[in-house]
Automatic annotation (TrEMBL):
Keyword annotations of the record: Plasmid
PROSITE patterns assigned: VOC
Signal sequence annotation: none
The UniProt record lists the keyword Cell inner membrane: no
Lineage: Bacteria, Pseudomonadati, Pseudomonadota, Alphaproteobacteria, Rhodospirillales
Entries under InterPro entries matching the protein: Glyas_Bleomycin-R_OHBP_Dase (IPR029068), Glyas_Fos-R_dOase_dom (IPR004360), VOC_core (IPR037523)
Organism: Niveispirillum cyanobacteriorum
Highest taxon, organism lineage: Bacteria
Pfam family, one: Glyoxalase
Protein name, as recorded: Glyoxalase
Amino acid sequence: MSHPRFHLAFPVHDLAAARGFYGDLLGCPEGRSSPEWVDFDLYGHQIVAHLAPDECGSADTNPVDGHDVPVRHFGLILDWDAWHALADRFRAAGQRFIIEPGIRFKGQVGEQATMFLLDPSGNALEFKAFRDEAMIFAK
């Protein structure tokens, strides 16, 4: 393994809807599963959708660069071209965004392309990209 991979488990209200979103729309290959959970390969990282309808979604937000960013979210840092291709795929599928694809911190340290959306269970996901990956942790 060239670098550590993260594992994230999160609640969903419907495994079929999770399969449609993560498997079909995002293109994540499915791994093991049971009637209560499904493993997905999210760009080499293991994410697991667990059936837990009472734990889904969160409305808490914090202001970031003029947007209300969901406090509880997860996602990926993609390369610039992959981010744009994913944004195009979401738009073509009619995916609703909670923060439309755009550039955050324009002209500042940490300038990044970002977009936020919800999965069918209300889990917030952020996908971002940096033109200069050295800016990922820059202050």
